[in-house]
Write a structure and sequence with these properties.
Layout (H helix, E strand, L loop, with lengths): L2 H12 L3 E6 L4 E6 L4 E9 L2 E10 L5 H11 L6 E4 L5 E9 L5 H17 L1 H9 L1
Length: 131
């Protein structure tokens, strides 16, 4: 278990996230935060970066309109972005940060960005998941 893993864990606890799962061998967490909309978010220490990733919805009908809307929204997201998984069937939120000089404010900024995205864009995300 690395010092970075312990640092990230302490930051998550300080930010009042619930650790649903902690894998010390792979150095990753699955977290949630009540009232924020954030659930089953994976936080993975892959030295030299921290990967923050969570599934938002499954793409049932691929369309140019859907992908265009997501790309346009990416421009407004403060930290992170919408991405597709390897199969192209799930839309995820993803951000990466440098572990070497990671501080609490930087991680909090990414997590706040996701929370803001989920609150502001919730109706659209729900609509996307239905189509």
């Amino acid at each position: 278990m690395s010092a970075n893993f312990e640092k990230v864990k302490s930051f998550l606890l300080e930010l009042e996230f619930t650790l649903l799962h902690e894998d010390t061998q792979d150095e990753l967490f699955v977290v949630e935060k009540d009232g924020s909309g954030i659930a089953n978010l994976i936080i993975d220490c892959e030295d030299p970066i921290l990967i923050i990733e969570g599934v938002l919805f499954e793409v049932k009908n691929k369309s140019l309109e859907l992908f265009e809307k997501l790309l346009k929204k990416n421009r407004e997201i403060i930290h992170g972005a919408f991405v597709l998984d390897e199969s192209g069937t799930k839309v995820l939120y993803r951000d990466t940060l440098q572990l070497e000089n990671l501080d609490l404010n930087e991680l909090e900024g990414t997590l706040n960005s996701l929370e803001l995205l989920l609150s502001e864009y919730a109706a659209d995300i729900i609509e996307f998941s239905k189509n």
